[in-house]
Design a protein that fits this description.
The protein is built from eleven helices and 14 strands. The protein is of the alpha/beta class.
């Protein structure tokens, strides 16, 4: 089966990723050719969590394509504040818009919403789970700035446990030949085991580090992330982690001259401001590349009938997902959807094992 919903970049083949990058580059080179590409079309941006870049990037992308936007950036300004279910909100909005882009704080909410949208649906981040369109921004940046998506040594630093951008990026780049990863974090914030499984399945070399200064010297790419206060159970736990990794000029002096620095933003304190003028610092340019990547995605989902994303085989089972962060714990009407992975039942919403 196939669909028009981008929940996880796993659903996009390497050929499709390359097609999207090529489309984004064409738009960059000739933006005037696409000013009316989406005339008469409406994008709904539903943001249940704060956002600057992702929300405004999608809105700008649609406007530059000639379309219009509707939506909300605070659920308290919608019927969600009155207790409306995710299903009902999405069903209604799907009747108004031609395509939906949603960010939600709960893991698995994107998959749940896509079941009721009725139009192409784009995951803009679901809790600490996934953020596929940020990864599109990342790979467009890498393709344009490094000229390749393979044979890269990529250092990823910060909150690797809760960082949905990290999870999506590793999953995408592990598809390309001879990429290796240095996973720089505290022990408490290491990547989830399912990400390690993906690296091993794809034969990617990886190593762990708790020292940014010693890990930086032979990297082609350094992907910095913030320690996310909103993902911690308490402020005290956050305070213990927030200043552990900071990229400053002293550490950067040890890096290669052609290494590039990426960051999904927002930045808090993990990159000092005096690095912004270094030619290796591409995080602001990365945000611009992201807009072109999102323009390409909108066009492919709305206009290319052959651009279909694969669906996995799912079953309806009796057992409920036990992950307390899963959308099924909050939206109780959702069916118990699962898929098989290495003989284990996995939740189709949050990708956690069903015990």
């Amino acid at each position: 089966m196939a669909n028009k919903n981008l929940i996880d970049l796993d659903a996009m083949s390497k050929n499709q990723l390359d097609m999207l990058i090529k489309k984004a580059k064409k738009i960059m080179e000739n933006p005037a050719d696409y000013r009316h590409a989406c005339d008469g079309k409406i994008l709904a941006t539903l943001f249940y969590e704060p956002s600057t870049r992702t929300q405004m990037s999608f809105q700008t992308a649609m406007l530059k394509l000639g379309g219009r936007t509707i939506g909300f950036d605070n659920p308290l300004n919608s019927s969600v504040a009155k207790g409306e279910s995710l299903k009902d909100t999405i069903t209604i909005v799907g009747g108004y818009a031609d395509i939906i882009a949603m960010r939600h704080p709960v893991e698995g909410s994107a998959m749940a919403a896509s079941m009721y949208a009725g139009v192409p649906f784009i995951n803009c981040g679901d809790g600490g789970h996934l953020h596929p369109t940020q990864t599109l921004a990342d790979i467009v940046t890498l393709s344009c700035e490094k000229g390749r998506l393979d044979n890269l040594k990529i250092g990823i630093c910060g909150d690797l446990l809760n960082g949905r951008t990290v999870h999506s990026l590793i999953k995408a780049l592990s598809q390309y030949d001879n990429n290796s990863f240095v996973l720089i974090s505290t022990k408490e914030l290491q990547v989830p085991l399912y990400i390690i499984d993906i690296l091993e399945k794809n034969g990617c070399k990886y190593e762990f580090s708790n020292d940014l200064a010693s890990a930086i010297s032979d990297l082609d790419v350094l992907y910095m992330t913030r320690i996310q206060q909103e993902r911690f159970a308490s402020k005290e736990e956050y305070e213990k982690q927030k200043y552990v990794f900071v990229l400053d000029k002293e550490k950067l002096a040890k890096a290669k001259e052609d290494m590039i620095i990426l960051h999904p933003l927002p930045r808090v304190n993990e990159i000092t401001v005096d690095i912004d003028d270094d030619p290796r610092a591409l995080y602001f340019k990365q945000a611009q590349y992201g807009m072109y990547g999102r323009m390409a995605l909108i066009l492919l989902l709305l206009q290319d009938d052959d651009f279909m994303l694969k669906s996995r085989d799912i079953s309806i089972i009796d057992k409920r997902c036990s992950n307390p962060k899963c959308i099924t714990a909050k939206e109780e009407y959702l069916p118990n959807r699962s898929y098989l992975k290495l003989g284990m039942q996995m939740c189709d919403y949050c990708d956690k094992r069903i015990d």
